[in-house]
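REVIEWER CHECKLIST
Item 1: Sequence provided? yes
Item 2: Single chain? yes
Item 3: Sequence as submitted:
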Amino acid sequence: MKALTYHGPGRRTWDAVPDPAVVDPEDAVVRVDAVTICGTDLHILKGDVPEVTDGRVLGHEAVGTVAETGPGVRTVAPGDRVLVSCIAACGRCAYCRTGTYGQCTGGGGWILGHLVDGTQAEYVRTPFADNSLHKLPAGVTDETALLLADILPTSYEVGVRKGEVGPGDTVVVVGAGPIGLAAITTARLLSPARIIAVDLSTGRLEAAERAGADDTLRVADDTDTAIRALSPDALGADVAVEAVGVPESFELCTRVVRPGGRVANVGVHGRPATLHLETLWIKNITITTGLVDTSSTPLLLRMVADGQLDVSALVTHRFGLDEMQDAYDVFADAGGNNALKVALFRT
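Item 4: Structure as written out by the authors:
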């Protein structure tokens, strides 16, 4: 089969690799019908994730059709149309038993495209299939379902839920890429009074308005002041969601959150950021980080299927699966191409 493989910082190939096979009784092999590229894949290609070794098939988000299952798989069968979650879960360890699947110590967690071969291929082996695959309702398209593999649960769990967004809150989302837009969309479910989107790109700020942001700001010297001015008492945001993964965006979040507020870091950081405790210690600030658990995926999937959650605007570019290299080029220059999520389909 063909797959996108990593060969060190800045080096990737779309070439023939061995077909995956069932290795463990709880494995399934899934034919990939649709796949996407994540910002984390770009971090890997920059060399930010040293655990990824030469020859690794990248990717951790897909929709597909079950081709084969191991003898221990009970909930999916060949022919089932499924969502491949970015997180695998053994279902037995202490973390899994509390729904904290991202920290699985039984061989799961974020392993696809990281510690085992991933989804940017014609077929993928999915460990712990019973816990890591989700059957898809007939009314949910492959393109829509792709967004439930990672960015929607990540934004909701790590941004909105950990940030404790609630009714009447002022929420600032720094970064209006796919993760930031998904955070805006899911934050709306909790009835905040105002959502402020901050980005460098005018096109992404326009997308943020369509996603439900009440106000948009381009990053500038007076961004801090402008954000505070949009809060009811000029003290700043109740919740600041960091959705970029660079020191500047994290530090902006810590500056604009009000006393007693929450900073929810969602972005994947490849460089250290400064934590200014000399000013933060007195403000009762809560800072959270996290890897998605995907415990919310069934809920979000039901909401999408019932028409309560619209994510149709997040995919901007579409390709055939064999155009993987072109899709990477477009996504890597998202600003120049006005790209949000890219989707690739089996043809």
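Item 5: Key structural point noted by reviewer: The mean pLDDT is 96.
Item 6: Recommendation: ____
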